[in-house]
Write a structure and sequence with these properties.
This protein is an all-alpha fold. The chain has helices spanning 10-29, 36-58. The protein is elongated.
Amino acid sequence: MSDLNIQLTARQQEILLRGLRYVRSASALDAQDWSEEVENERQSVYAEVAEIEAILNGQKSVETANV
C-alpha cells in the first residue's frame, strides 16, 4: 500500500466522511442471504471504512486562501 498525503479543507473532509457513512450504511442494508462469507465481507468493509475515517479524523484540515 502506498501512502498518499493530501491536504483537505474542513468542508472537503466532511464530504468524504459523509460519503464513508453512506458506504457503511449501504453495506449494512445490502439484502443478502446470511452466510459466514457475507458477514466476513461486511465486517471487512466496516473495518476499511473505520480505518479511513480514523485517518481523516486524525488529519488536520487546512483552509486554502482564495486569491
